[in-house]
């Protein structure tokens, strides 16, 4: 952990090293992934089964890749009733939030002779990638599938690697509760390729969302354009802005909830109150020992944990806007007062009783957020990601007469006279 | 041109050859572009000036790259008043349409103890790429800059190559009218790199939009993630659906307005009325001879023009949805009757008096549209592309008490106990 003063010499360079911790996929990974994609594209199921045997130690025929209704039933029965209730609550709350993002098709009838508008149409099929193996993230299923469901997507296809064939019942239960239509036990670049191009068994989709390792992320980047993808995610981060108010114990716990994710996670506190910062530093050390994932959290905190002392709250806010954090906690007395000043952040957790973990699971907003400063231009995953728009344009003959000469003029400026002719031919007496 | 029956053997294979006409950037182009990006990133203005000298035959110092206020004034004075009026009308109409896309920040106060919402914030700086050289597209400036302006973007930076230093006055006038803040006479991959990473002279932006050649497109794809980009565009296309009504002369003119763009453009008519299709075929031949860009249009029409006879209108619509055309004309008697059936299209031109050219210039909707079937998942360029969203989450202590146990449960399912602790520590009595 570094304890820095924002005004000390070399501060920016020290902080930049944290920001740039993300691994770049590099040419070697790209070559491997390109090979896998080409292979699945040309040989379909055959290649998919081979890679699944090799990487996931799972041998089955093509039909065996799909999770059966009986497996779903079994998984649902395995989940403890209170856990099931918690997952249901998450699905309900996430659905309720995302319902508010839905946009309507619209037309403008302001002009009597020219009508314009926008048609909003759900995507026909989407693929959701869910990590498997050691990790088990039912919340990832909820956060990807529910917005797709709310958007009205025709078919939601989930892929999740099942090393040795084993599936996590909580992940399957979350899929069931979230409205996933089909689940395939495949993963890695081969799963992304199968979704992008389709095989005899796996349907070709229009968009692929969801987190994965570097092979999955690289595969998504490489099939972008063939299908849509969500944002390109790097390692996760939290920034806590503090004004001296609140409890250092809580802030330390929030920093650690980020640090336990993985060793590349970064947890940063910026406070105008040095002694608050010192208390948080001590608390983190104390709490670290109590964590089941102590080793990971400690590595993350030691490598990428930072406590920064700023001159005042304004300086802290300016810093935050500069780095555009994925998760931003406003651990201040009056968070709504400074909300308008926050210009770059994935999600903003307001006040002393809103830990990031609440947003991760069930507050309602999506937990798929732009990382590594990309909140400057990317948005959280939303219903918008699962619809597309078509412009609607309708001219009457009178409308075309009214603006026809201007269209012809612009077409001439561009040297595109066939454009102008398509108008003038219609207006010829 | 091919005249096909949708039910003939081999139809799909023949049509697929048209769909797959787009050039892939290939590894060689990528290597060149990667080199240029790395060079501009490390040597800044020095590299930018070198490439500009080499590729655009323009020698100047760094300050000379920026267009001066005097140059703007001169350009405005050079434009004919009626052309200026046409450009103004385009800017006004495009602005009016895009105003309707603006979304508000919102909060939900449905629950007394948990508040959620979404903050909408304009991007701080965006870069707009405008092609230069032989081509001159003031409409491209309007269609990229106006949505950014409407969105409230802080600074709009335009780049346009100026071979030998020459700038087109209509492009500069369009920039002025559209609210572009700064213009640099640079182009190619080096301009994209300068916008993505910044140099001493060119500001680093948050997002880059606008069309360009294969080097520009490849550069945009490679800097994606460092900055946002708009969609990845391939060659342009139009599909006209016809029910036998309307005038073959008009439809032929519309097909040619697409064909004149470039030799890779594709113009397709699908009609349930064979004799209408035959008339259009004859009309295209007749009109081709009258075009200033006859050679380009003829090459495009011969290579990628298709007239398809369908069994009925439903079959034509199903075909259209399958190929997801960039431009779709519903040259039918009652276009609004079939609008709900159209699920994939960039822009839909309704009825016999709405030529594509009207939408290209000034109907209001954007002319930057998803090509090559990507309308399955991409949308037209819009105000949404120039804002980003941040989730807002606020819990009171009571709210956290209400759902805290469920958060802890889900965190346990995922093996992330520090997540649960950040909640339970706050609720400890």
From TrEMBL, chains A, B:
What biological-process GO terms show up in the record? L-histidine biosynthetic process
Q: Species name for this entry?
A: Citrifermentans bemidjiense (strain ATCC BAA-1014 / DSM 16622 / JCM 12645 / Bem)
Q: Which molecular-function annotations from GO does this UniProt entry contain?
A: histidinol dehydrogenase activity; NAD binding; zinc ion binding
Keyword Glycoprotein on this protein? Answer: no
Per the UniProt entry, the Enzyme Commission number(s) are: 1.1.1.23
Q: Which gene encodes it?
A: hisD
Provide the binding site for substrate.
236, 258, 261, 327, 360, 414, 419
Top-level taxonomy? Bacteria, Pseudomonadati, Thermodesulfobacteriota, Desulfuromonadia, Geobacterales
Where does this protein hold NAD(+)? 129, 190, 213
Instruction: List the active-site residues.
Output: 326-327
Please list the residues that bind Zn(2+). 258, 261, 360, 419
> What is this protein identified as?
Histidinol dehydrogenase
Question: What is one Pfam family matched by this protein?
Answer: Histidinol_dh
Cofactors: Zn(2+)
- GO cellular component term of the entry, any: cytosol
SUPFAM superfamilies linked: ALDH-like (SSF53720)
Gene3D superfamilies xref list: 1.20.5.1300, Nitrogenase molybdenum iron protein domain (3.40.50.1980)
